């Protein structure tokens, strides 16, 4: 497993078609998976996901013949020797089997806090501009203005299929044959194990997007150039592999204008929630480095941070869930919706639409609290018709696009808004509780050993995720109940005082 700033890159279910006009230049805007360039038509792919059966998943039927087992270090020495021959300086770390991540980089010498490590030169980066072994295939994709992500995915498959003929053969042989990724979960597994979590929907959208990307490439390019892109090599299974590699290993380099790259050797580093250090390009040493924020003794695994991601985002891209309570950036997405029975539903919906929001929206809750936008959305949801003149203001506050400097709190509906959020939290808690209660008896009828092992592994990931997300909801529930109690007790005291004054004057 390794780093990528891609947790939300494929968050929509809209895939662009590629221009058939060779004069169109390939976009380099990577703020989203694809930039919203008007010349790209868009196709819906909500029905694209046709998952494999559970028996197929258990049998591990994948069409990828390259790479190695995910915990294998058999190709590690060959990879390190090749990197050294290509200009990688002598390293203080080596690839070994580890307890966290199955394989990772382990200190071979004492490493000081604040020390710079790696120094991987740009010649060893894989980027959208890397030279293709099959130059004609690369030229065809660039003529069609294929964006960077699908271009890189196709490039990986092309180079992998050439085995020893590719410059990258030593690197590819050390990559996992089947990366840990929700791309490999079947639809029934997502529905069964992640029913309570919003990550389920994000995973379905990502799978649909990868499927839609492959189908678009196949229809527009591969089918027209079968000699360059034969289906036995460029197919759905190999694209699932290549996107799994990209999601788990692609790194964004801030000092290179946010450029994304695969960085061999550096991508063997595993994530720890306890470290803050990350990969970046160092202009003075002209290589990718990271600066340690703690000392390491020989034999200790060296870690970096993959970013400030929730447990759900880490599972989505990297296929693992940190131990409960160890991720200070953990969060759970709380879904809020305007009720269709609301007398002002249409007006509220239009106000939200102006701000790029919908009648249903998710906001992140953390153990330390929630964003002010969530409260604004809740206020809009519970506001009566008498407040319709403030709907636009509330919607703007819910989207964080408002430039208003005035106080946007609404004391007259604060209690109703807090109760609205509490109801949503308790509905989520109920879903998690139901799954966790049923998880103990799940899959007791499975007799196939391979299938049973797989389901036990996936179920444990789901239990770990749901436990951590439910913990955050319980904390929010506690805070909300206290605030509501304080409001209501304050109102009761005020009423008693008022009644006392009324009796005095009567």
Summarize the structure.
41% of the residues lie in helices and 10% in strands. With 506 residues, it is an alpha+beta fold.
Written description of the protein model:
With 506 residues, this protein is of the alpha+beta class. It is built from 14 helices and 13 strands. The chain has helices at residues 54-59, 76-85, 135-143, 148-161, 169-173, 187-193, 199-220, 236-249, 311-318, 345-354, 372-382, 391-399, 414-439, 449-505; strands at 14-16, 42-44, 93-97, 103-107, 116-120, 251-253, 259-261, 270-271, 280-282, 287-291, 303-304, 331-337, 360-366.
Q: How many distinct beta strands? A: 13
- Fraction of helical residues: 40-55%
Largest beta sheet: strand ordering: 5-10-9
On the 0-100 scale, what is the average pLDDT? 85
Task: Describe the secondary-structure layout.
Layout: E1 14-16, E2 42-44, H1 54-59, H2 76-85, E3 93-97, E4 103-107, E5 116-120, H3 135-143, H4 148-161, H5 169-173, H6 187-193, H7 199-220, H8 236-249, E6 251-253, E7 259-261, E8 270-271, E9 280-282, E10 287-291, E11 303-304, H9 311-318, E12 331-337, H10 345-354, E13 360-366, H11 372-382, H12 391-399, H13 414-439, H14 449-505
Parallel strand pairs: 8-11
Antiparallel strand pairs: 1-2, 3-4, 5-10, 6-7, 9-10, 12-13
Helix pairs in contact: 4-8, 7-8, 10-12, 11-12, 11-13, 13-14
